[in-house]
Design goal:
Blueprint lengths: L1 H38 L8 H22 L15 H32 L12 H5 L1 H24 L5 H10 L3 H19 L1
């Protein structure tokens, strides 16, 4: 069971980190090559646009999964910040439920559409568009899993089943970097005082 878990974590990192990083590097190098060929050699590459657009899509869609895992999406929390911990858990639960429902509801249609796109090919490289749009399927699966995990954590909070450590973790998630630094400094001071 432990080996299966490690394999799952490695596969998750491959999808969320290594593939987007690789596609970003390819996109960047082809972009630089295209600029060089167009403006220095005066011979633009016909295939460069297709590669950069496809790599951009792979980078953004799969990179969004990592951003969701690490809770680093840009959020506007003006009202959310004014709520108590149970209010935050309820609103977070409802928002995550809405996203999870949308992903689950549209999953089969999305897979069928991406499969249908294999009939169309890019104009220069003749790559099937199903390959270009394939990361969206991984995105839907991973985002749904992350939403369900967050919904479980939120439900434990607003039902009063969360441990004090889970409550503390949720409070830390909502702190700014400055507040986290102050909190960490206080913990270090308290640890030093306990030792003395």
């Amino acid at each position: 069971m432990e080996k299966l878990k490690k394999l799952g974590l490695v596969l998750r990192d491959v999808v969320e980190i290594y593939i987007p990083v690789t596609s970003f590097v390819i996109m960047f190098l082809v972009f630089i090559l295209q600029i060089f060929c167009r403006y220095v050699l005066r011979q633009p590459l016909q295939w460069a646009y297709e590669v950069t657009v496809s790599c951009y899509l792979w980078t953004v869609v799969l990179g969004a999964c990592l951003a969701q895992r690490s809770n680093s999406h840009v959020v506007f929390t003006l009202i959310y910040d004014k709520m108590g911990i149970k209010g935050k858990a309820i609103t977070s639960f409802l928002g995550n439920a809405l996203i999870a429902f949308a992903m689950i509801y549209s999953f089969v249609d999305s897979v069928e559409f991406i499969d249908f796109m294999k009939m169309q090919r890019t104009s220069v490289l003749k790559i099937g568009l199903n390959f270009v749009y394939m990361p969206y399927i991984a995105f839907m699966v991973m985002i749904t899993i992350y939403m369900l995990i967050d919904m479980y954590k939120d439900a434990r909070l607003f039902l009063g089943l969360a441990s004090p450590e889970e409550v503390r973790e949720r409070l830390r998630e909502n702190m700014s970097e400055a507040e986290l630094a102050i909190e960490d400094a206080k913990e270090i001071e308290n640890a030093k005082e306990d030792e003395a």
